[in-house]
Design brief:
The chain has 422 residues and is mainly α. The protein is built from 17 helices and no strands.
Length: 422
């Protein structure tokens, strides 16, 4: 099979699953936009940031590690079981630690400032509901990543599709009936889907009972993936919270909701591209490749990725008025004027993520973390400066500049990687 045909097959398969995830995100986002005003919509985004931090610390952000280490060891079952056991034990310890901190946070943090407009009791209930919700999300993420690493593409697709459908039904039902607060609905949307994901993955041999019976307990290879996943997954929500706070302080809570809608468009794009690229790139890159093999595989792949990204950006640019109307509601139409700068950043973000996956697969921990931390600080500082000189366009300009720098720096680093042979 030619490389073009292989790429097309992988892209089509992962793209179809990603389409379901995108439809799920769109449906949930649309429901929230219809039911909530911009200020409340921004508050939901703030709560999701808190959940993302909890998910990162409880799972140690090991999703890429589950895929890469499974793919690298799937032909040695004993070694693979040891890898899985080590990953599960680390995740268990991290989850217990996270849940204790979350309980303290629930009753000690200034929730009225973090979640403005939400009664304290409802905010506390949402955080408590979020604990099983975070655990469920981790189960779904881990099982899907393992299926990807094993090459069980049908099971990977099934987990993603069923999860997407169930989450939409869950949010729609409780928003319509009003039996839970909006934040509690968001917190619990993954619980039932996690049970299904566990059942599907057990059929491929990824069973907790089977893993726990093995004598091996391999944790060493997980450290690099934990650092490379955890730092950006924690730092990014913190920076987004700072950006949202700066926008609200200077322009008001409704303006923060408009900015949130602009950022949501980027989230949709990144979710689609990252899911596809993780399936295509991560299992194919390993340190055993030589320089020639890698660049023969990766150079045309990167060109295709940038071409697809450009096409998607162009479509969204010319259709941005319709896009905002479809994704949100009439109350968010102000976002149309601010999308062009954001889309420039989205173009470079796709290529940057493809390059970052190479560093992750190679476990180039120091290089990866240096770029990630630097880019997040650049985004925060750029937003602060941008608001002073460009007003409401400042956060979007900072995002575009940060992603351009991110892409250039990662491209240079990947070109300078050392392989087995020159």
């Amino acid at each position: 099979m030619s490389s073009d045909l292989k790429f097309a097959k992988l892209f089509a398969g992962s793209g179809a699953v990603t389409l379901f995830n995108a439809l799920r995100a769109f449906a949930i986002n649309k429901l929230l936009a219809v039911f909530l005003p911009p200020a409340a919509f921004a508050c939901v985004g703030q709560f999701l940031n808190l959940m993302n931090i909890g998910q990162a610390t409880s799972s140690l952000a090991l999703q890429n590690g589950w895929t890469a280490l499974t793919a690298q060891n799937k032909n040695n079952q004993d070694k693979l079981l040891g890898i899985w056991r080590g990953g599960l034990r680390l995740t268990t310890f991290a989850s217990l630690f996270t849940f204790v901190i979350a309980l303290l946070f629930c009753f000690m943090a200034p929730l009225e400032m973090l979640l403005p407009g939400v009664p304290t009791r409802l905010a506390q209930a949402a955080i408590l509901f979020a604990l099983p919700g975070i655990l469920a999300t981790n189960i779904i993420t881990i099982t899907a990543a393992v299926m990807n690493g094993l090459g069980e593409n049908h099971k990977w697709a099934l987990i993603n599709i069923v999860t997407s459908v169930w989450q939409v039904l869950w949010v729609a039902f409780f928003l319509y009936t009003g039996r839970l607060s909006v934040l509690s609905i968001i917190a619990t949307q993954s619980i039932v889907a996690a049970i299904f994901a566990g059942r599907i993955s057990s059929r491929a041999g990824f069973s907790v009972n089977r893993i726990w019976k093995t004598a091996l307990d391999t944790r060493g290879p997980w450290l690099s993936y934990a650092l490379m996943g955890l730092v950006p997954m924690v730092l990014s929500p913190v920076v987004l919270t700072m950006m949202r706070t700066m926008v609200a302080f200077h322009f008001g809570n409704d303006a923060a909701g408009i900015w949130q809608s602009v950022w949501k468009v980027s989230d949709f794009l990144f979710m689609a591209m990252s899911a596809i690229l993780t399936v295509i790139i991560l299992p194919r890159v390993s340190a055993s490749m030589n320089r020639g093999e890698f660049f023969k595989m990766f150079n045309p792949l990167l060109l295709r990725i940038m071409g697809i990204s450009l096409a998607m950006i162009a479509v969204l640019y010319f259709g941005r008025s319709i896009l905002v109307q479809v994704l949100f509601s009439q109350a968010y139409m102000g976002a149309v004027d601010y999308l062009p700068l954001q889309l420039v950043g989205d173009f470079f973000r796709a290529g940057g993520f493809a390059l970052a996956l190479v560093l992750i697969a190679r476990r180039e921990t120091v290089a990866f973390l240096s770029v990630e931390v630097g880019s997040e600080f650049l985004l925060a500082a750029g937003t602060f400066v941008g608001i002073k000189f460009l007003e409401f366009n400042g956060p979007m300009a900072a995002y575009a500049f940060e992603n351009f720098v991110y892409f250039v720096v990662l491209y240079i680093l990947v070109r300078r990687l050392k392989w087995n042979t020159p």
